[in-house]
Amino acid sequence: MAPASLAELRESIRDAIARRCPLRVVSRGSWLDANRPVHADTRLEVGAYAGIVEYEPGDLTLTARAGTTLHEIARATSANGQWLALDPLGDPSRATLGATIATGSYGPLAHHFGTPRDMTLGVEFVSGTGDVVRGGGRVVKNVAGFDLTRLVTGAWGSLGVLTEATVRLRALPSVEATLLIDIGSATAELERARTALRGLPFVPLAVQLVDAAARQALGVAGGRDAFIVRLGGNEEAVRAQREQLRGIGEAHDVDTEIWRRARVAEPAGAAVVRLSRLPSRFAATWQDAERIAERWPGGQLHGDPGRGVVRVVLPVDGNVLDASLRAALEIPFDGTRIYERLPRALWPALAPTAMHGAIDRGVKAAFDPHYLLNPGIFGELQ
Q1: In the chain, which stretches have pLDDT less than 50?
Q2: Model pTM greater than 0.85?
């Protein structure tokens, strides 16, 4: 099914309810291998429901249909010196606004600007009852209440099919620079660098720590861990930021194209786990992530010290035994461990469900009582 209008989408869901037909919600299909397997044979394809509905440069807001790509939004807003500061992993010419919000996906720019929850002002979606639901608004100031916008952000289409969203824009920096700072692998040295970054009088647009394998994948020579720091502002501000970074280590300019490469560098079919603790324990989290990567050929790491998050990427091919991959991933860890991608057979063992209580199930039952939208994506059928 590929509805071309809101009315057709609503009827498609109502027809599925009548036939008790589970639906796999698909936009451009970039992230279909992420999260738990969906138990549905019928695809509801909504990627064609696209286009910018309203753009108010003076208000720094934009409303677009869910199938609109991030590339299209960037093209429209850059003409006015603005941007939507979301850079989720994947090709921006295929990544859509709706899928980005539905999956709660973000990239290195979250270090400065936050995640989709921080930028989404309002949404429109069709629930699993076939009703059109709207939450939030098209202005930055909004009346507080039951926050439907935050509820469906990161819900992976399990509560409703996003059809439209209003997002907050930012002014594009007039000057940008990207610097690479090599650091030692010792925990004390990493913690010293993290503390120095935190003590800067400004917040960089993005900061990523990469290990030797990740920097090689990005085309950056060197065999040590390194911080990649993205600066932005006017010419004077960027010059001052460069000076302030000198206290962390010797910095080398690298091509800003590295951020685009980072979005598409992840090997297809890789197993990915995200580890996190408080940012103050980032060095310990990095060490734990290294223990996973060291167990796996080609394993690589990158992380955001400001958010306390490290992603572990393990290339997987058809010859990999599930038991050996599971052994590499199941190291003891006392923080938050979120699996992003896994072979289908490992989900029941490593992450059987993300729904743990009556509130979770009650919300699902309220918006999708027939369990037709992306059933199984949160393990709710376990």
Answers
A1: 140-144
A2: yes
